[in-house]
Amino acid sequence: MQLFYAPDIMPPLYALGEEESKHCVRVLRLRRGGRIHITDGRGNLFCCEITDDDPKRCTVRIVSVEEEFEKMPYALTLAVAPTKSPDRFEWLLEKATEVGVTEFLPLDTAHSERHVFKPARGEKVITAALKQSLKAYRPALLPLTPFREAVLRPFEGRRFIAHCAPARSPEGKVYLPDALRPGETAAVFINIHANNLEDHLIPVLAPFDEQTEEEKYREFEDRTEEAKADFENDTMRVVRFPDGSIHSIYDDAFNKSFFIEEDRIYAFGPNRDRKSKLQTEESKALELVTDYPVKSWYPSFEAYCDEHRGFVKASDGRWGYTCNPNAKWDWWIPKSILSSGRTSRLHSFCERR
Fold first, then answer.
1. For the CA atoms of the chain, what is the radius of gyration?
2. CB distance 223 to 311 below 8 Å
3. Are 221 and 322 in contact (CB under 8 A)?
4. How far is Cα 273 from Cα 256, in angstroms, rounded to an integer?
5. Rounded Cα gap, residues 111 and 201, in angstroms
6. pLDDT given at position 343
7. Chain centroid to CA 167: how far?
8. 347 confidence band (pLDDT: 50, 70, 90)
9. What is the pLDDT of residues 285-304, one digit of tens each?
């Protein structure tokens, strides 16, 4: 398939520009009656027949159109500070276009090698990669944007930053493909030229940090009445042992040897195997209570708020928690990708919904 790019194509007839006409007639040696394909870069793939093989103004007739041709089930923004060498950045534009990036956002950071970015060459590279990889969706190349502005601009999706700062979350490192959800909208910030990411990023995001410990950003949210109602009415699942003692289903006395599936108690098989679903004399002697009152489990309302709900008690006696009402992202989530032999962590600042 010979693919051409024409953002302004409209049925029924269309005349290619001089450069594309020359390539079609002189280089590819296509003549009247030949077939080519044209995309408008917005997902439409036009099958066309050449009606005039003029090398300066090749005219085609649109035979058919396929909408949403090979549409990607996701949207990915790549935010990158242009490298000192233009060739490296152009290589990135080319390869990312071929794999299916939705848009490029060049970044101007405090330590950028280049604070001036001319998009004309980059647009040509993207167009060439689009035609070479036979895609109908052309990535957008946005203007050079200051890092702070890029981070705070409205974005419907999750955003990640590749960096080498120490991780804050105890979950450990996972690869970026494991962090992304199928079909989601995401943005990945890379190459931001910051030796200390926290100094670079936290001043920008601090007012929107859900986990911030700065009191000026936090407010107390009263949950006392809600907790009182739940304490009176909520129930929990417990296990009654043959001696009459009551245990939580999370107690070691129970879950080291037994498990629950579809409200039935089974004993673990060898190596804590659940597939065998063993029903032993010991498991049959246990009684699952699915509606045990939490009021009977916790010795006091205060213990319920502290242990079960994780609330804190304000100086005036109210129970609840402090939070940032302007929070837009949660915490540092260590995600790892391999880039040029280096391991980076990703910082996710997720829009709360």
1. 30
2. yes
3. yes
4. 12
5. 13
6. 34
7. 18
8. very low
9. 999 999 999 999 999 999 99
pLDDT digit string, tens, across residues 21-44:
999 999 999 999 999 999 999 999
Determine the 3-state secondary structure of 164 from DSSP.
coil
**Side-chain half-sphere CA neighbours of 309 within 13 A:** 26
CA dist 335 and 245 (Å) reads 44
Where do the H-state alpha helices sit in 208-251?
224-233
Model pLDDT for residues 135-171, shown as the tens digit of each residue: 999 999 999 998 888 888 888 888 888 766 666 566 6
Q: Which two tokens stand for residue 104?
A: 């490029």
- The runs of H, that is alpha helices, within 133-219 are 147-152, 176-179, 197-205
CB atoms within 10 A of CB 101: 21
8 A C-beta contact, residue 44 and residue 6? no
pTM here?
0.57
Biggest CA-to-CA distance, the chain: 96
Phi, psi dihedrals of residue 330, rounded to the nearest 5°: -95, -90
Q: Kindly report, residue by residue over 56-113, the tens digit of the pLDDT.
A: 999 999 999 999 998 999 999 999 988 888 888 999 999 999 999 999 999 988 777 7
Phi, psi of 13 (to 5 degrees): -115, 150
| Structure tokens that stand for 279 in this block | 């029903």
Q: What are the DSSP calls for 56-120, one per residue?
A: SS-EEEEEEEETTTT--SSEEEEEEPPPSSHHHHHHHHHHHHHHT--EEEEEE-TT-S-S---HH
